[in-house]
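Second opinion, please. Pick holes in both lines of this record:
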Amino acid sequence: MKSNVQKTDSKSSKKPLGITIGSIIILVLSAVVFIFIPTMVKGAGAKDLPPMGYYKNKPIEYKQGSVFTTMLNNHLQNEKELSDSTFFNCIQSAFSDTVVRMTIEDEVKKSGYVVPDSAIDRIMIRYFSDENGNYSPKLYNETSDSTKVSMRKELHDELIIAQYQNDLFGDTANYYIYGNQNTLFGTKSPEAEAKFIYSMNSPEKAFDVVSFSMSDFPQEEVIAYGKKNQDMFKSYDLSVITVASESEANKVLKRINNNEITFDDAVTEYSNNNYGSSGRFSNNYAYQMKALFGSDEAFNTVAGLSVGEISNPVKTSTTYSIFRCNGAAKEADFTDAQVLGKISYYISTNERFVIEDYFMAKAREFASAAAIDGFDSACTKYGLTKSTTEPFAINYGLNPLLSNPPENIPALAGIHNSENFLKTAFALKDNEISAPIVLNDNVIVVKQISSKQEENDMIDLFKMYYGSYANSFDLYSMRTMFVQSDDVKDNTLTVFLQNMMANNN
C-alpha cells in the first residue's frame, strides 16, 4: 500500500500505508467541524435575500445571526481567493451544514434529551480560568451577564450536537488516540472488518503498457472519410436573417417581397445574427445545416435555392430564419486545411466510433504480434514506447484505505474509474496480453508481468487507524442522508444565480 510516510531504512522495500497521523487528525477535525459556531458573524449584506431553502418548511436564511450565515462565514474564512465558483461552493457547504444541524436538533428534541446545567457549567468554567488553570471568580464577575447568557446558549447548542454524534458514532478523538476498541458509544468496527478491508490491497499486479492516442488519427483516414461522405461536407454560400418567432419572420419576408426593404437592410434592422455576422451564414456545411434545421425537408429547401432566391421562413433551433442564396454550392476540397479540420471535428464529435475502430484494429494487430514475437519486439515493429507500472491493487473510486493506482503513466489516468480496464487487466495471468481497452482518449494494451499478495507487516497499524476512517464514512453517510431527505428543499443555486453573483464581494 502506498503512502506519503517515508521510512529511513533505505534497504527496505516495504510500501507503507496510504494514511498518516497528519491525515487522521485532519479527518477527525473535518468530521466534527459542523458543530462549532463562532460568536462573531458578518452581516448578510444590504439586500434581503429569499430563503436558501427549507427544512421541514422552516426557512434557511442568509441574514444577521442565522445559523446559515455563521456556517457560511466559517467556510469563507478558509478561502484565500473568492471567485463565483468558490463562493457558491461555500454556500452549498453552509446549506448542508445548516440542514445537518437542524436535523440533529430535531432528532434530539424528539428523544427527550435535555442538556444538564452541570454539563454547561463544566465547560463554562474553563473560560474563566487564570494563567494557572484555576477558576477565577474575578474573571467571571467582570464578564457581562449578556455575554455569559450568550455563552451558555452557544454551549447548550454545541452539546446537543456533540451528544447526538457521540451516541451514534462514538468519540472521534478516541478513534485516533486509542483505536475504536476503547470507545464506549457509537457504531463499532470489528477487527475482522479491518482485516477484510486490508486484504483488498491484494493482489498487487504490475503491467507493461502501450497506448494508441486517438488524437493521432491519421489525416489520410480523415480524407478517406470525407470522400466517402462528400455530400455532408459540401458548403453553401448563404445570407441569413434570424428572428425570434415565425410571425416576425413572415412579417420581414412580406416586406422584402413587397420591396419595402432589401434583404441586406432587413439583416441590419431585424436579424439577431445568431448564425453569422453581417448576415453571412457561418454554419454553412451540409452536416451543420442538417443539425440546425432538424429535418431533411428544411435542408433540401435551403440547399435547393438558386442564386439570388430567398427562402420562406425556416425553423432554426429555437429561432426562425430566412435564407438567400448568394452563389453555387462548393464541393469539399480535400487539400484545404479548413475543410479537413471540419471533417476531423465532425468525426470526433459525431462519429467517434470511427476513430475507436481504427485504433482498436491497430491495437489488435499489436497484441497478436506481441503474443507471437514478444511485447518488446512488437513495440519496435509498431514504433511504440513501452511503460511499466509499479505493482498496484484494484482501487475503484480511489478509496483512501487502499493503495493508489500508478500516476506516472499519462495514458492510465483515470483507471480508478474504469471498471472495464480494471476487470480486463486484473483477470490476466503472468505474461498474458490483454485485448485492447478503450480508456479516455487512448486504446491500451497491457501485459501482466508480476502478481503478488500484500504482506501483513502493516496490519496492526492499519487496524489502529481503520476505526477513524470507518467513523468518517458513517458521518458522511449521515450527512448525505440528511441533506437528500424529502424534508429538505435546496434553493441555493437559484438564489445565487438570481441574487448573489453580482453582490458577492
About this structure: Residues 21-192+481-500 form one domain. The chain has three domains: 21-192+481-500, 204-216+353-452, 235-330. The longest helix spans residues 84-111.
